[in-house]
């Protein structure tokens, strides 16, 4: 879909059209290893269902050994990487900064990202192991993730390509990066440079556990740097300390001018300058919820960088998310390029 001058705020028009990239993403570069399992597998492994758990290389190896007879699929992933790939699928132009190494998974990661249409920013290191995320999906479409971060935790400020950052409309940073000292510094540099160069900052809270660990810091960060917040209802409640979703999104709306909070099958809340609206979702029968939030953020960012209103952007985000939950894994098998007008007709 072609961006139109009349759809944009006049002060943003010339700036947007001077940018080389729509979005510059920063995140943990992880190879997703996707498998379908029965609940008894989780019970046997004593794995907590439905959440992301950090594990070391030994534990990851044990789990993979027990999966040896189960069919597995590989995808380049990590939360922000999934979002960049889905933006490219919609027709957007983006690049990504993450860290892999010269092992089998690292070589796969780089090629897979580039094949998906995303410029991969960071050259592989020579030592260490590329991070992996074992994604276990049960018949109820719930996904359980076991993440071994590997060398992804060594992403540092020197890995952020500032010229590409300055050439982007948005930067998009994942909250998972606040768990490591060097990744946190890389994220802080990204946000500071974005603000200094008229690049808008989008930030996802990533996970309720991330919020609970760094709640005060996330609140201050949102106030100081963030133009667009992404979260789900659970994350929004954790950050706000509220018990009602509307109160939660309203609170976050006092920290940032634009907030998108997903609400499952109900759709997503949009809070723009304090005004809240629920944008309905699309009816689906979910197969695998892996990457739904990442896909939603991709749809929204595509919209915001192509002249959509926040409400229309949320509607497109809901559609992209609805398609991803009908697939296995966080990658769409269908192309969404040029489908925006059809899907958003009358909206």
UniProtKB/TrEMBL annotation:
Keywords: Kinase, Transferase. Coiled coil: none annotated. InterPro entries: Carb_kinase_PfkB-like, Carboh/pur_kinase_PfkB_CS, PfkB_dom, Ribokinase-like. It comes from the Bacteria. One of its GO terms (molecular function) is kinase activity. Residues 73-333 form the Carbohydrate kinase PfkB domain. Belongs to the carbohydrate kinase PfkB family. This is Adenosine kinase. It comes from Leptospira kobayashii. The lineage of its organism: Bacteria, Pseudomonadati, Spirochaetota, Spirochaetia, Leptospirales. The gene is rbsK.
């Amino acid at each position: 879909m072609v961006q139109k001058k009349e759809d944009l705020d006049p002060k943003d028009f010339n700036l947007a059209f001077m940018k080389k990239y729509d979005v510059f993403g920063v995140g943990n570069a992880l190879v997703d290893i996707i498998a379908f399992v029965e609940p008894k597998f989780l019970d046997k492994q004593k794995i907590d269902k439905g959440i992301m758990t950090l594990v070391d290389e030994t534990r990851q190896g044990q789990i993979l050994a027990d999966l040896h007879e189960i069919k597995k699929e590989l995808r380049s992933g990590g939360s922000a990487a999934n979002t960049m790939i889905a933006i490219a699928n919609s027709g957007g132009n983006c690049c990504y900064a993450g860290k892999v190494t010269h092992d089998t998974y690292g070589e796969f990661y780089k090629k897979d990202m580039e094949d998906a249409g995303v410029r991969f920013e960071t050259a592989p290191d020579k030592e260490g192991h590329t991070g992996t995320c074992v994604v276990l999906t049960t018949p109820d479409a719930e996904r359980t993730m076991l993440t071994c971060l590997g060398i992804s935790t060594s992403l540092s400020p020197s890995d952020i390509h500032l010229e590409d950052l300055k050439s982007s409309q948005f930067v998009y940073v994942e909250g998972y990066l606040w768990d490591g000292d060097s990744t946190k510094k890389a994220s802080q540099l990204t946000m500071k440079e974005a603000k200094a160069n008229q690049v808008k900052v989008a930030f996802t809270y990533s996970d309720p556990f991330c919020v609970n660990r760094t709640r005060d810091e996330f609140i201050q960060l949102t106030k100081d740097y963030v133009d667009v917040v992404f979260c789900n209802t659970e994350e929004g409640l954790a950050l706000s300390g509220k018990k009602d979703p509307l109160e939660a999104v309203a609170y976050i709306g006092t920290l940032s001018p634009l907030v998108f909070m997903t609400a499952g099958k109900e759709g997503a809340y949009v809070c723009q300058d304090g005004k809240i609206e629920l944008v309905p979702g699309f009816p689906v029968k979910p197969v695998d919820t892996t990457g739904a939030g990442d896909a939603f953020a991709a749809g929204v960012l595509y919209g915001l960088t192509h002249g959509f209103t926040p409400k229309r952007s949320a509607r497109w985000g809901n559609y992209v998310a609805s398609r991803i939950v009908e697939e296995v894994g966080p990658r769409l098998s269908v192309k969404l390029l040029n489908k925006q007008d059809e899907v958003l007709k009358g909206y």
